[in-house]
Amino acid sequence: MSVYECSEHMDNFLRELPKCEHHVHLEGTLEPSLLFNLAKRNNITLPDHFPPTIEDCAVRYNNFADLQDFLDHYYIGMSVLIQENDFYDLAMEYFTKAHADGCLHSEVFFDPQGHVERGISIDTVVEGFNRACKKANELFGTTNKLIMCLLRHLPAESGLKTIQDAHKYYESGILHGLGLDSSEKPFPPHLFTECYQAVKDKFPDVGLTAHAGEEGDHSFVSHSLDLLKVSRIDHGVNSQHSDELLARLAANQTMLSLCPLSNVKLQVVKDVRELPIELFFNKNVPFSINSDDPAYFGGYILDNYRAVHTRFGFTGEQWSKIAMNGINGSWCDEARKQELR
Ligand code: HPA
Ligand code: ZN
């Protein structure tokens, strides 16, 4: 349902825009090619119902019924990640693609509990990802930050234990943020108040964010702000249904990390055109545009920018404002923000 053309000139403009990504799950960047390679390298037998070839994956990935249907598949996919090098290779593939798309700064999620519960130590995960962050900076000059997410389908006690296990990484500055992901509706924000408080008390400079308002209603967004004290919201699409919340997001310049292609693949909307992107822009609610789980949803950051452009036809000036909001909402220091601008 493209309404506007993305001319070669516009495509170049979007590639050259100083883009920042704030919503991408490293485990969601696991392309089927790497997935099958790692399964072989680590002698992992995937379950019978997992698509057996790259082509079958493409078909399956086009048919997710909803968030839970995707997550069931995503957790099987990540079971091929075993050694530190696997985590390194995974992140390097993503950083290489993001760089090619003209993304200058990435703040990336990962789900340690999804690995620890399979017997992989958090050190293996964090060391592999951190090594890739450093290598990408060396090779491409891009900057990258790691955000640890808690799985909301697991109890808060497991989240508190994970925070304890990650203590040294927050202390040393290897981890920069705390997020909350997985099945949203059955697990509202209030369940994790203590987890967020624990990080905020010990590490007041760590960035706090949470998935909210993807499938849950707008109260999930306001409760994340009130109870978890987050400074950013991941998705937040359903904020559109509360004028009071929109005014609050605009007044505080709280950024939403939107993921347009994800919302289509997970049946939040039928087409990118239905997303409230124009409403957010006109109400002065800052947002960034992100890929979420690009290996599963058919597009990296630039594909998401293109999808938005072909539906909303923003002018160069409007796009520059969107990019500037992304820089302002990033968790890098002021000197790096100046460079990005
Ligand atoms: N939503 C919630 N949890 C997730 C997602 C998502 O889109 N991707 C990976 N974990
Ligand atoms: Zn997400």
How would you spell out the order of helices and strands?
HEHHHHEHHEHHEHEHEHEHHEHHHH
Number of helices: 18
Low-confidence stretches: none
Instruction: Report how far the terminal alpha carbons are from each other.
Output: 33 Å
Largest sheet: 8 strands, parallel
CATH architecture: Alpha-Beta Barrel
The molecules bound to the chains, other than polymers, are:
hypoxanthine, zinc ion
* Fraction of helical residues: 40-55%
Fill in the CATH topology: TIM Barrel
Mean pLDDT: 97
CATH homologous superfamily title = Metal-dependent hydrolases
Strand content: 5-15%
List the quaternary state of the chains. Answer: single chain
Strand segment count: 8
Structural commentary:
This protein is an alpha/beta fold. It has helices spanning 8-16, 32-41, 54-61, 67-77, 84-100, 112-116, 122-140, 156-165, 167-171, 193-202, 218-227, 243-252, 260-265, 277-282, 294-297, 301-312, 316-328, 334-340, and strands at 19-21, 103-110, 143-151, 175-181, 207-212, 232-235, 255-258, 287-289. It has one domain (8-331): TIM Barrel. Helix content is 50%, strand content 13%. Strands 1-2-3-4-5-6-7-8 form an eight-stranded parallel β-sheet. Strand 6, helix 12 (243-252) and strand 7 form a beta-alpha-beta unit. Helix 5 (84-100) runs parallel beside helix 7 (122-140) and helix 8 runs parallel beside helix 10 (193-202). The two termini are 33 Å apart. The model has no long low-confidence stretch (mean pLDDT 97). Hypoxanthine binds at residues 25, 28, 67, 74, 181-182, 211, 214, 262, 292-293.
